[in-house]
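Dissemination and training. As part of the outreach component of the grant, students in the summer workshop were shown how a complex can be specified as a set of sequence lines and then modelled as a single object. The example used during the hands-on session is reproduced here so that future cohorts can follow it. Participants entered these lines:
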Amino acid sequence: MRNTLATKLLFELSQPGRRGGLMPACDVPEHSVDELLPGACVAAEPPPLPELAEPDVIRHYANLSQQNMSVDTHTYPLGSCTMKYNPKRNERFAALPGMANVHPYQPDESLQGMLQLLYEVQQILAEIGGLDAVSLQPAAGAQGELTALLVAAAYYRDTNQTSRRKVLIPDSAHGTNPASAAMAGFDTVTVKSTPKGYVDMDDFRSKLDETVAVFMITNPNTLGMFDRLIKEIADAVHDAGGLIYLDGANMNAILGITRPGDFGADMMHYNPHKTFSGPHGGGGPGAGPIAVRSKLEPYLPSPVVVKEGDEYRLAFDRPKSIGRVRSFFGNTGVLVRAYSYIRTHGPDGLKRVSENAVLNANYLLSRVKHIFPVPQGDRCMHEFVASASSLKSEKGITAMDIGKRLLDFGFHAPTVYFPPIVKEALMVEPTETESKASLDSLAETLFRITEEDAEFLHEAPHSTLISRPDEVKAARDPVLSWQPGTQA
Amino acid sequence: MPYVLNTPQDQADMLAAIGVSSVEELFEMVPAELRLDRALDIPAAMSEMELTAHMQALSGRTRNADDTVCFLGGGSYDHFIPAVVDYVSGRGEFYTSYTPYQAEASQGNLQAFFEYQTLITQLTGMDVSNASLYDGGSSASEAVLMCIGATRRSGKVVIPACVHPEYRQIVETFLTNLNVQVEVLETPEGLVQPDQLASILDDTTACVLFQQPNFFGGVQDMKELVEITHKAGALAVVAVDPISLGLLTPPGSYDADIVVAEGQSLGSPMAFGGPYLGIMACKEDFVRRMPGRLAGQTVDRRGKRCWALTLQTREQHIRRERATSNICTNQGLFALRASVYLAQMGPQGLRDVANLSLQKSRYAAEQISANERFSLAFDTPTFKEFVVRDAAGEVESLIKHALSQGYFAGVPLGQWYPDMADCFLVCVTEKRTKAEIEGLATCLAQAPANAAAVR
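and obtained this result:
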């Protein structure tokens, strides 16, 4: 049961003289610090960290944990985030000594088990994507996007096509797409979407020319729709000499059903923390491995894992590589969990994952479309975007009100106000790891909320530890760390 | 398929409710010619028991710091991880939650981020910390990008050779398409020489990326270097080892503009390189240029203190191509681990870890260099790492020999510094015992070498 008084900060719990971690006595001959380090470099006092005993630390964090909703405890239909169940075996495997206690600069000969696993992950991700080569280095989806765009830039430099400066991005895309393109030094050009969320072909054609480097597309898109014209789009981009980048955010819908490489993608990233069961860790870590066609393989970051006979090694000698995007190998721990997930499922199992993710989303859509219009229609892939705009105009109830009120009933809110092309958007992704019963309950709760008083909903949530925070104050007068002398 | 809940009956009921006859029909919008007409060519499914055996076998074929005495460093460290860290980060309410978009349902994470930000400012002496980035390297490269924006200088950035070579490689990768040069300041003595620093800076220099202790373990007075940098109108970014701040002066005290760090040593496993924790803290002036999530204190409608994500107008989901960075998430779980670690260690505990690392490292340097084959490459003060030169010039076989005797002896430096092919970097944390240190020294001394090569 929640301890509602336990919201003091670590710093307010601090008591001078309390100790948690005690270190052993020094077992080597000890010198004074001033003998070993220049006086100007040594602080007179240790940093002013809080002083706590171990029970303080545990009770504090155990109570904090209970102020979160999580996949382990709640239905979490947060659209575009694929909040599926996080298997416990993954955590056990990632903690094995030959996974967790491995230094990144060990000699290859001491790393054979680890390198085998990573090599297999490379092979598997290439196969699922229908592409040829994989880099496991990027630390997150956004870094995968940036890495792939740097790979594209290197490819164009190497083939004397530096006039290709433009990256086309649909207006329904995640914000990381244009931000990554800008960081890679490209000019971004927005392509309109149709009301159903597909690429507006007229607008697309008007913007496609020989200066286009890459078309970044999310398919299934952020509205949960598979763009039927994807092949036509890809062919047109290829005919114009450009490359297709697939934002793999929504791979959970198409595992073993269709492959990005088969529908025209030249590069893509995966979000293993989503598609391959993460976990999300309160906002990371993720990982952002990318897969590319063979012509782009020479430009991938170094190192990659190669197999020679029965031996695995890290290959650094790759003269055309863009270099490094991250220190060390990458977010290996996330990849170990992804591997565990994929090996648990096998080819049929992964396909069943996507089928059930799509079934659950369509079932929930069929249950709520009478309450919330879904502009894209009666079918979706793994998620759908409902609109509260009619509720807003008729009753003054906003998407945010609905999201906040859901918290009172023990459901995490859907993603609200994204993508921006749908008014009062509620983006719902149930994932395959929810039951029919929990989807029924979510649908019934949504219906019940629409019957509630608008004023009451504006004040929601009512049962959480706090009511709505004043975000304007937080931004206008930023308090980003605790200061001594302040109290709750 | 142990994680799907729908029974065949559920599926039939759901399909009927949707109004379709098969799951296949739901995929109508995927054109038939684009469908995969075969099974994926990946290994077959395994039960948990089979997979456990498989994973244990892979783990068993990977040497690690439990079965081999680890003297490897270079940014990833075998520091002790207290049990409380694994307990807290293993709580499902933390690790199966996500970015706190709904503050009311995420006060645990938000307060933890706010506390993390505070702990990092306490550690570094800086005004503001974000809620973390991916790793030390991405923090360093993001800091360089911040400096280019803040100074509006896009000629070059300066990186001393004694800074982690992978950080330099990452910065180079990110600057390739932005037409900003990376100029390397040579550091043949293992430290930055102030006069050489002054002469390399010009009015197009956006920043200098320093590291303290540097990649070779060297420690030097940073105040003068930062002053020289500021005099040239450039900004000073300092990469630190957070453990060292148990002893060393905080970068805020020597006027660093941005501090970055690899936070792995604060309670996270080495895990073959990741996931880690990118620490970034800066002066107040730069907060609106900072990438990444920030948790801020505010009040709720009843006036109760609470926390929310803030200053989001910097971020990609609002600013798109004009955002400060493309970074979306932080490393929430690893920021949490670092916070629990720091809370558990406290000021004295952290000082003890730093001092033990310092003392044992010094002892190891003495023990190893007692043999005439080995010498310290640099005559500088060092923290927990130091560079050993092998007069026989046979680093590779030396490392191999040590491995056969149960030691990860060090990191060969020739891969980044061709003129240091006879050198390796040794790291000693608080975990290494006197016996292990003496064991390594003996093992190295007994390693076979081509006698002719020994000068």
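The mean pLDDT of chain B is 95. Students were then asked to discuss how this feature might be tested experimentally.
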